[in-house]
Automatic annotation (TrEMBL):
Keywords: Metal-binding, Oxidoreductase, Zinc. This is Alcohol dehydrogenase. Its cofactor is Zn(2+). Belongs to the zinc-containing alcohol dehydrogenase family. Residues 26-130 form the Alcohol dehydrogenase-like N-terminal domain. The keyword RNA-binding does not apply. Pfam families: ADH_N. The keyword Zinc applies.
Length: 347
């Protein structure tokens, strides 16, 4: 089968590999129908994910059809259309029992697919702990609608969930990239009084203004003035930082009002400074981390009921055979790309 492979830092290559087989009774083999490229894949390519194992198949955002299941798998059957979770988790350990599946203590726990074990930018993928890692896609939900459920939409849902958003709140979201937009949709589900999105890329700003006219979208240079007009208590009640750029962490705590919740969704390339003397007395509550991706059934229900729609994020579609061109486009942010869907042309 075709599999897009991490050869060494800087080099990904479409290779021919044997089809994966069941290695454990809790595994499933999924025939991938649609996958996507995530910024984390670029981090692997650039050598900034030390855990990534050369030789593995890339890809951790995908949907497909269950081909085979191990004898202990009970939640899906061959033929089921499923989302695949970015995180592998056992469902039984201390962390899993608390819903903190990102810290599952299994050797493959956390982000393994497409990083430490073969992922889904391929025709087939082996999914460990299939009862946890796969969710059936409702018949009325398309592959395109479900594509981001296991990764960036899971992240957005988790970020909104931990941010303690209340109806009277002004929520400031920094960054309107793909994860930012998924986060925005999940923030809106909680119906805060107002939402302000800060983004410096004019095309992303335009996307927000076009698709979410009820949202106030502002460039970073205009944000202080917008907040002065809109927030009577010296900043936003809740800040979600999904940009991960040079200044965005500083903006996140600076533009929060005293006693605000500041949720850091972004992943940074470099350490950030937390200048505690400067923020002394501001009494902020920081929430940070990687997604606990265990709400996929709920997000699929929200998609089925028309409450979430991430299909406008798919700006481009490529066949698996042309995945290198898709990477080139995504990496260089050409042609207004937000997300690329990779189609596996089997039936
Ligand atoms: Zn990802
Ligand atoms: Zn676990």
């Amino acid at each position: 089968m075709l599999a897009y492979t991490y050869v060494e830092p800087g080099i990904f290559e479409l290779q021919n590999k044997p089809k994966p087989v069941l290695l454990d009774s809790r595994d499933a083999i999924v025939r991938v129908t649609l996958s996507s490229i995530c910024t984390s894949d670029l981090h692997i390519k650039h050598g900034s994910v030390p855990k990534a194992v050369p030789g593995i198949t890339i890809g951790h955002e995908m949907v497909g059809v269950v081909e085979k299941i191990g004898s202990s798998v009970s939640s899906v059957l061959p033929g089921d259309r499923v989302t695949v979770n970015v995180e592998t988790f056992c469902g039984n350990c201390f962390f899993c029992r608390h819903g903190w599946v990102n810290n599952c203590t299994d050797p493959n726990g956390g982000w393994a697919l497409g990083c430490r074990i073969d992922g889904g930018q391929a025709e087939y993928v082996r999914v460990p702990y299939a009862d946890q890692g796969l969710n059936r896609i409702p018949d009325s939900v398309t592959d395109e609608q479900a594509l981001f459920v296991g990764d960036i939409l899971a992240t957005g849902y988790w970020a909104a969930q931990i941010s303690e958003i209340k109806p009277e709140d002004t929520v400031l979201l920094i960054g309107a990239g793909p994860t930012g937009i998924c986060t925005l949709q999940c923030v809106l589900l909680r119906s805060p009084r107002q939402v302000i999105v800060c983004e410096k890329d004019p095309r992303r700003l335009q996307f927000i203004r076009q698709h979410y006219p009820q949202i106030l979208a502002a460039e970073p240079e205009h944000l202080p003035e917008v907040l002065r007009q809109r927030c009577p208590y010296g900043g936003a009640d809740v800040v979600l930082e999904a940009a991960g750029s040079q200044d965005s962490f500083r903006m996140a705590w600076q533009y929060a009002r005293p006693n605000a919740v500041v949720t850091v969704v972004a992943l940074y390339d470099e350490p950030q400074i937390l200048p505690l003397p400067e923020m002394y007395g501001k009494n902020l509550i920081f929430k940070t981390g990687g997604v606990d991706g265990c709400n996929c059934a709920e997000t699929l229900r929200l998609i089925e009921n028309g409450k979430i729609d991430t299909t406008p994020l798919i700006t481009h579609t490529y066949p698996l055979g042309k995945i290198a061109a898709a990477y080139e486009l995504f990496e260089n942010r050409r042609d207004g790309v937000i997300k690329v869907a990779i189609q596996t042309a089997l039936s």
